[in-house]
Specification:
The chain is an alpha/beta fold. It is built from 15 helices and 18 strands.
């Protein structure tokens, strides 16, 4: 880094640091907010989105180049309302202290656990759903009583600028501040001494965010991605499974962290699965290049990356089946649109076998025994969601208990996200921590134990000298009882 660049970086960190310091001063001066103010902040957050929903949908469509307005309205706006309303409704209940040792209260020993706000929460948003995936964590942080700073993705600049422009109409900067800018701003933002940092994005960038946060010992929640597997069970309805899996793969042009990435199909049904998938895609997209509802790659870099994954697989012997409408030539660099593509005969030499596709491409693999699919899934990093298409039977329960993933969805795309109260998050390389429902409130709270004694004697002071003979006898008896109890349990387990 040159001297000029280093000076600019210091100035950038200083400006962001001043914003953080202002929020923290206000937080400390005001103290933990009551439920009414927390709900009011959530309501203002909702109003900010709902009052400007058409502008947000237009901004995201312009950022993508081609994106269904209806789909964007559903995913960016409507899709988050039930989770936020559930959070708002439960704020007073979640704020309550948990009373401990209730019987001891009559003797003068009081103990409780208080959920306390952390302070200032930083949120780094992604580009695939730049509204929903910044507003949802912000609502959870407000519910827990915190202040919020949001760094919008530079990949969707129109949406970022819109959010930054309208936020001051609904919030004081000490409550919510929206930050825009490129990678330099994102790097400086990740290095701030927040009380918690929330990031949604790729595992590779998530690792950089966690590394930057570690310098200040800032706890992080990482909502990442991965290669989400699908298993079509031997007893599944192959037509229904193929249709639903294919439709799920095409949501937002495949640019969704919970999209199916690859699917295991019984060997004898692979050809039928592919035929139904092709038929579904042809029906959904009779035209692509001029179709405003067919989502383009968000930028040239992502377009080139997905096209490169397909080309690499083809060069190494994979069967590539692109569903291209008659008279069109795809992929089309001008519109950044890639035809829905089914890839077979994939092996581990190919990049597509290990890299998250994040595009309109579905890998199809055959299997003869369920253990083959399970062993493959377990040999790779844990995904954000694992899919099963088939009945809820012993095979499904074995699949659930013998694989590891952030969530499990059966017979439908993203079904694990339907309950508003359910936690959402990854495990291992697909994420760290969770939110939605009470999990979001917990993520941005510190559970503080408060104990007070009005007893006429000390409880813990007995551990200090001088040690009486009766104390030694009591300690010995307690130790013998504990050993006897533990030994009995171990014998019973055998």
């Amino acid at each position: 880094m040159s001297a000029v660049e280093e000076c600019a970086a210091i100035q950038l960190r200083g400006g962001l640091g001043e914003s953080l310091a202002a929020q923290r001063r206000s937080f400390i001066a005001d103290g933990p907010p009551e439920a009414a103010l927390r709900r009011n902040r959530i309501d203002r957050l909702l109003a900010m989105v709902l009052d400007n929903s058409e502008d947000f949908v237009s901004a995201t469509a312009a950022d993508y180049g081609s994106r269904s307005r209806s789909a964007a309205f559903f995913a960016e706006i409507l899709g988050m309302l039930s989770v936020i309303e559930h959070t708002r409704a439960n704020v007073p209940q979640w704020m309550r202290a948990t009373k401990l040792m209730r019987a001891a209260r009559f003797a003068g020993l009081r103990a409780e656990v208080l959920p306390s706000p952390l302070g200032v929460v930083g949120v780094i948003g992604p580009w695939n759903f730049p509204v929903q995936l910044t507003v949802l964590p912000a609502a959870a942080a407000f519910a827990a009583g915190n202040r919020v700073m949001i760094k919008m993705s530079e990949v969707t600049p129109r949406t970022a600028e819109l959010m930054a422009a309208i936020a001051p109409k609904y919030f004081d900067a000490t409550e919510l501040q929206v930050v825009t800018g490129g990678r330099d701003v994102a790097a400086a933002f990740a290095g701030l001494p927040f009380d918690h940092l929330f990031f949604t994005g790729s595992p590779s960038i998530g690792a950089l965010v966690a590394r930057a946060a570690s310098d200040n010992l800032v706890p992080v929640t990482l909502e990442l991605g991965g290669k989400n597997p699908v298993v079509v069970a031997p007893g599944a309805d192959i037509e229904r499974a193929a249709s639903r899996i294919t439709q799920g793969r095409m949501v937002n042009g495949g640019q969704v962290c919970v999209c199916p990435d690859y699917v295991f199909v019984p060997d004898a049904q692979v050809d039928r699965f592919v035929a139904v998938a092709r038929q579904t895609l042809s029906s959904l997209f009779p035209s692509i290049v001029g179709n405003p509802d067919y989502c383009s790659s968000v930028n040239q870099a992502n377009f080139d990356r997905v096209v490169g994954l397909i080309a690499d697989a083809r060069a190494q012997g994979a069967r590539i089946d692109s569903v291209v409408p008659a008279g069109e030539v795809l992929p089309d660099p001008a519109s950044r649109k890639i035809a829905p593509t089914i890839v077979r005969d994939v092996d581990d030499r190919m990049r597509i076998a290990t890299e998250e596709v994040f595009g309109p491409v579905l890998v199809v693999r055959g299997y003869s025994r369920l253990t083959e699919a399970i062993d493959h899934i377990n040999a790779h990093p844990s995904p954000l969601v694992a899919y099963w298409f088939g009945p809820d039977n012993a095979d499904f329960r074995h699949f659930v208990s013998h694989t590891r993933s952030g969530g499990v969805a059966r017979n439908d795309f993203a079904a694990h996200m339907i309950p508003s109260s359910a936690p959402f998050g990854g495990v291992g390389r697909s994420g760290m921590g969770a939110y939605h429902g009470k999990a979001g409130f917990d993520a941005f709270s510190h559970y503080r134990t408060v104990v007070g004694s009005d007893l006429p004697f000390t409880v813990t002071g007995q551990a200090a000298r001088p040690f009486s003979g009766s104390m030694r006898v009591s300690a010995g008896l307690s130790l013998r009882r504990a050993r006897k109890r533990t030994t009995a349990r171990l014998k019973k387990f055998r």
